[in-house]
Write a structure and sequence with these properties.
about 80% helix, elongated, 12 helices
Length: about 290
């Protein structure tokens, strides 16, 4: 029997979470092509079903899963990667899981559920293998270089030329050339290291990350004719890209977010500020007029 209505609702909430995660993991297991990942996901799905049955013994009821959560996390995993999707889901459930301990004196055998949630599942999640995470260093290289180099280039060109179309053209040419250069450098450096990575794939990840970042940074200069506004929007886009990338890495790789974000953002904005001053000096002392 429940001591109060609040405890009853909490138990039903735990039960809903468990059956929802059971279905999500089962669907992801069916969708993955990697047999090792499939077995890991099936094992977690089975554990979640056992947890559901545990709470059902205390509530005496069946509950329906959260269909929106199933839809949301399934497609997040499909689009952004299996590891990111399931780890993001586990982060979202931490609040509910942490409350399990408050019932340790009143719910028999709850310690087993707590141990599963905090230790066993995390160990299983650590066994997931994804190609995109093996090449995340290559993506980081291309993205970081594009942000630092192009924000600086665009800032310098903006004040030197003061013409958004010219800035976009010069920036695009510079960015495309640099993306090929970065890809080639990544190929050679990866080939020289016996770490099991495919050098061609590494170079492609680096080059694509670079050119995609270039496209987003230059877009404001193609759409807006005021060079100051274009530059400010471009810098804002750079901050958003840095935030998104570091959030992804912090979840998928269990790395600290704030330190990496501020370090990367500070570097990009610092280079942009210095380049803006250089652009001013070039225009003033070399007499550049467009």
């Amino acid at each position: 029997m429940f001591q109060n209505e609040k405890a009853k609702n909490m138990f039903l909430g735990f039960q809903t979470n468990e059956i929802t995660e059971h279905i999500i993991y089962a669907q992801l297991a069916k969708s993955t092509k990697d047999e090792s990942n499939r077995q890991v996901l099936k094992k977690i799905s089975e554990d979640e079903k056992c947890h559901y049955e545990f709470w059902k013994k205390h509530t005496g009821k069946d509950v329906n899963p959260n269909r929106w959560q199933i839809f949301k996390y399934y497609w997040i995993a499909m689009i952004f990667g299996l590891t990111f999707g399931v780890k993001l889901m586990e982060i979202g459930e931490e609040g509910a899981q942490n409350t399990y301990a408050s019932f340790s004196q009143t719910v028999p055998d709850i310690e087993h559920i707590i141990e599963d949630e905090h230790n066993h599942e995390q160990a299983l999640l650590g066994m997931l293998q994804e190609e995109r995470l093996r090449y995340v260093g290559a993506v980081a290289l291309g993205l970081n270089d594009a942000l630092v180099e192009l924000t600086g280039t665009l800032a310098g060109l903006s004040f030197a030329l003061q013409n958004t179309r010219l800035v976009a053209v010069v920036g695009l040419i510079t960015g495309i050339a640099a993306s090929f250069s970065m890809g080639a450098s990544a190929y050679l450096s990866t080939k020289a290291e016996p770490n099991g990575k495919n050098a061609l794939k590494s170079s492609l990840y680096t080059g694509i990350a670079y050119i995609v970042t270039v496209a987003f940074l230059i877009l404001p200069f193609l759409l807006i004719f005021n060079y100051i506004i274009s530059l400010l929007i471009s810098l804002g886009v750079a901050i958003i890209i840095i935030w998104l990338f570091n959030f992804y890495i912090s979840v998928a790789r269990d790395l600290p977010f704030k330190k990496r974000f501020f370090e990367m953002a500070g570097l990009s904005l610092g280079v942009a500020a210095v380049s803006f001053v250089i652009g001013y000096l070039v225009r003033r002392f070399l007499g550049v007029e467009v």
